[in-house]
Hints:
Strand content: 25-35%
Mean pLDDT: 75
Radius of gyration: 27 Å
CATH class of the largest domain: Alpha Beta
Structural class: alpha+beta
CATH architecture of the largest domain: 2-Layer Sandwich
CATH topology of the largest domain: Alpha-D-Glucose-1,6-Bisphosphate, Chain A, domain 4
Number of helices: 7
Helix content: 10-25%
Number of strands: 15
Amino acid sequence: xxxxxxxxxxALYLTGESGILYAQDFTHCYVHPDTPVNALFRIYEDxxxxxxxxxxxxxxxxNGTRLNYFYMPRKRPDWFVDNAIPRAGDxxxxxxxxxxxxxxxxxxxxxxxxxxxxxxxxxxxLTFLAAVSAPAFARAQxxxxxxxxxxxxxxxxxxxxxxxxxxLKVEMTLTATLSSLAALILDIxxxxxxxxxxxKAYVLKRVGPAxxxxxxxxxxxxxxxxxxxxxxxxxxxDAGTKSMSVRSTCISDLIPPKKDVVRVPLSIEQWTVNPxxxxxxxxxxxxxxxxGAGAPAWLINLFSVKGPFETFSHLRQQIRQPPxxxxxxxxxxx
Length: 334
């Protein structure tokens, strides 16, 4: 929606000074939500010489430089007016078993064929594009910002370069071994005791001692729906440095979706764990997440620190338990 407002303001600025720029109202049609691109700004020459207002010219509409801006929300609004819009005609083909489509909004304008106006438009367009692209560039270059530093746990966040949801990082030091942490992470059935809001988790398939697929159900507070995700978990170790890597990646289509539960479309977790000479380990954890179902990014970002902090607080308690504290794994060197 921010893009729409910027384009609309740009149009008003042009029309306010030149007096001969014409803009259409917003219209919309429907496309399938799997469409990968959600915004398009198009500029092209339109010179079809259709006579609309007389005198042998077509300055009013179709003759000149045409600008189209298309914007598709990533989630279809569930508004009454939107649902009241009728389906396509009888000759259309329904490929998805229902109206599972979302609107494309369009702003269209024509800049009349006038060299002076074109030169002025070019200068303004360059300024406009620079203003629009600057926030995206700044977002891509964002640095980690410390959000919480408590009980030896540091939680950072930063704006993602291709998502509205912040990326998260956790740093902490534990009195434990690499095998202890690996044993805890591989004990999927125990996730509900330390992983934030995990209601249940279980193994789907084991590929090897440090390679498996599992399912986890995450409780969400009312009125949000619970989330679930099938995950591929891999643990590896550098033979030279003994640095241990843990990677958990959501494979959203691994199993069929479940009723009344939202499948998480994106979740990437990366652990880098290094042994210290004093019998401790240093953990650096990274999370990139999209909870799906149009969850409001501003709200998720506002409370995003709570989950990682509580997870690592509980992890520190769990790793002291005998099954993990005394663990020795043949594929991990402490």
